[in-house]
Amino acid sequence: xxxxxxxxxxxxxxxxxxxxxxxxxxxxxxxxxxxxxxxxxxxxxxxxxxxxxxxxxxxxxxxxxxxxxxxxxxxxxxxxxxxxxxxxxxxxxxxxxxxxxxxxxxxxxxxxxxxxxxxxxxxxxxxxxxxxxxxxxxxxxxxxxxxxxxxxxxxxxxxxxxxxxxxxxxxxxxxxxxxxxxxxxxxxxxxxxxxxxxxxxxxxxxxxxxxxxxxxxxxxxxxxxxxxxxxxxxxxxxxxxxxxxxxxxxxxxxxxxxxxxxxxxxxxxxxxxxxxxxxxxxxxxxxxxxxxxxxxxxxxxxxxxxxxxxxxxxxxxxxxxxxxxxxxxxxxxxxxxxxxxxxxxxxxxxxxxxxxxxxxxxxxxxxxxxxxxxxxxxxxxxxxxxxxxxxxxxxxxxxxxxxxxxxxxxxxxxxxxxxxxxxxxxxxxxxxxxxxxxxxxxxxxxxxxxxxxxxxxxxxxxxxxxxxxxxxxxxxxxxxxxxxxxxxxxxxxxxxxxxxxxxxxxxxxxxxxxxxxxxxxxxxxxxxxxxxxxxxxxxxxxxxxxxxxxxxxxxxxxxxxxxxxxxxxxxxxxxxxxxxxxxxxxxxxxxxxxxxxxxxxxxxxxxxxxxxxxxxxxxxxxxxxxxxxxxxxxxxxxxxxxxxxxxxxxxxxxxxxxxxxxxxxxxxxxxxxxxxxxxxxxxxxxxxxxxxxxxxxxxxxxxxxxxxxxxxxxxxxxxxxxxxxxxxxxxxxxxxxxxxxxxxxxxxxxxxxxxxxxxxxxxxxxxxxxxxxxxxxxxxxxxxxxxxxxxxxxxxxxxxxxxxxxxxxxxxxxxxxxxxxxxxxxxxxxxxxxxxxxxxxxxxxxxxxxxxxxxxxxxxxxxxxxxxxxxxxxxxxxxxxxxxxxxxxxxxxxxxxxxxxxxxxxxxxx
Length: 910
Hints:
Elements: H1 2-23, E1 31-36, E2 39-43, E3 49-54, E4 60-67, H2 81-89, H3 99-105, E5 109-114, E6 119-126, H4 129-145, H5 150-168, H6 171-183, H7 197-202, H8 205-215, E7 221-227, H9 231-243, E8 266-267, E9 277-285, H10 293-304, H11 310-316, E10 323-329, E11 335-343, H12 349-361, H13 370-388, H14 391-404, H15 409-419, H16 422-432, E12 438-440, H17 461-464, H18 483-489, E13 491-494, E14 500-505, E15 512-520, H19 524-527, H20 533-540, E16 544-545, E17 548-549, H21 550-559, E18 563-568, E19 572-580, H22 584-596, H23 602-619, H24 623-633, H25 649-657, H26 661-671, E20 678-683, H27 687-698, E21 720-725, E22 732-740, H28 749-760, H29 766-774, E23 781-786, E24 794-802, H30 807-824, H31 828-846, H32 849-862, H33 867-878, H34 881-891, E25 898-903, H35 905-909
Parallel strand pairs: 3-7, 8-12, 14-20, 21-25
Antiparallel strand pairs: 1-2, 2-3, 4-6, 4-7, 5-6, 9-11, 9-12, 10-11, 13-14, 15-19, 15-20, 16-17, 18-19, 22-24, 22-25, 23-24
Helix pairs in contact: 2-5, 3-31, 4-9, 10-13, 10-15, 10-16, 11-12, 20-26, 22-27, 23-25, 28-31, 28-33, 28-34, 29-30
């Protein structure tokens, strides 16, 4: 009977959804184009396309404004122009002169991104008619009335250059884009979206304005609105605000450059500072809209996935590499597939490179099997369903498909993946994975070249003509995510096993459910000398269980459409689950098996140790990692071996190398159990059934070592300033730290929360406005607090990236702003905006089921309900200007901050 009722309920929701789409009245001039799987497209007379993907079950709204312009459209001297323009659009319009500040004040999570074929502007907000209307007005005004002013270009150019330098710090990104650049001869895909330094530094404002006027027009844009919103009201607002923009008279010129088929293997070598080695191979493949591209998606998994992938088996399992990867760029025009490996410094690059090439070339004699395709397809379809179940992810995914030619390609590719056979994937692999089509770090002459197919442009229109797709995703209930309603709907009970539970059942889109399970481990005495066994044991759990290999476990989770993450530190293990109502029972059975019956294979431990050591080695010369470790170690009073000791990079490597299977088995046997565990679930499930299953799966599983939280009392921190050299790094990092006697239920907490937000907690913060917006010193700067819920020991930091030659400018600007705040205080307008922004952000956070489950699990240990959040909300609203100023002055003394600067200052001084 239960399944019959569920089917009837789903059918009713589907009919209601279809009826709603059919009933949306159309404003004058607006036409309905098509509806596919619950998404409806409308057209305005000026050419603007509008997509509605409503979902009333999630109390948030997301807007994506996508312009069909990216780095592919840039001409000689214009590289990086599309990305520069993305930055400048946020500088405001005459009607909206301070966009970033308004975003922060209204609690919007907003940003922009530029890629090869599109520029996208994203904003997510707690469902609110007023904020949605405001954002749509801004988006419409920004389309044709943005300042794009010389003064903003001058300051933002240095910010973009700072972002560019940050990318140059990363060896993988540098190697990736240089290798892609070597693989193209003529096409703009061979140029990084961030642009050439000379173009970014020298582009004229007139050229940028012309680029803006040409591409930022309604006939070159698509507006996507997902989540909870009033469709009738919203369509009227869109028609009113965007409809008044005239249709442009200019005609956009199509792009037609296509590289000829590659006629021989190309090589590239990059030499620079670093500790890890990377080898990758780039292959030209069909364009994203091509029917053959679906096979490319599966090939990236068949080769690059761990542990099933061919590269993992040939390189990682043989200890030639620490990890492997495979991914493709889904571009509108002929694209690339990237396959590669990362190696520790002690491994042989020549050996790994030869194995990489041999493994890929072997596809000619070791063809793709149906099992390979089934496994990759299962993973692809699982990820696809996760996307369609989340309005935010859905909006971004549609934006990407729009850049390919049409949003319906998103569903069409899924259909193509469903139909793929091994023979189809093998045909594509045989055509494109050939030596003559490869760009690698070596040159190998060959007497008999094997040419790939000629690259072709693909027109998406005939592919999606009359396309209908599947039935729309079933929506859930409209849920008001207030603290009061969350508490009203949540059942909290301690099970006989000792596990504390917080269960919030509600109908969700696609019957999604999010779970957090936290196992607390040991006490201060028993855990001494154990690091890093806590995180290493947790990382080994899903690498083998009784009768199941790592691959078996991963395949099972994929079949169950489950995303399961297991993470641990020295004192706890956290299991994160995202699945559906139908699959939750089987997922929990498998999670219980993984937790209770791990097999800890020795071969997997060696792979894990290799991965972790390689990760640490890669951080040794990274300014961010070097600075953060130095500031964390400063003043640390704990002895080596204590769980709160901060080890050096060398100590971390030595600890990992000392881990054995025997030590991990003993750690698991002594510390794992659920008698002090916390479990929270939010989403579509039956609470009574879930509680019974938890008792069945975990009853009687007790830890041999009782849990008692390891205290973290505040300790004295002498002020300190230190410069650390990180040679050959174009970007530098700055961080300050203060340890303050504050707990998150102290009377001062709401006032300091507001004060931090004013100073640097958002994109409208004081240091952001001065250092990012006014002077263009840093791509990003912010302040933040890690509030302690147990002891009066909260950490407060400010961090920024910048060019090493701008160190003195950064120091001066930061000192002036923090000094001014201490001396003169905040303003009434800053207080008002900060309170509004903070409250909106907190409402948005409660609307995210995964985050809410995490919060509820954490609150179980504290014996805290969401009433705490309601109180903090009220206290934030009541914070006065005097209280905010007093809190900042009480806890932030500029003369007592510990500050670290890491970068290549020696080179900058030359």
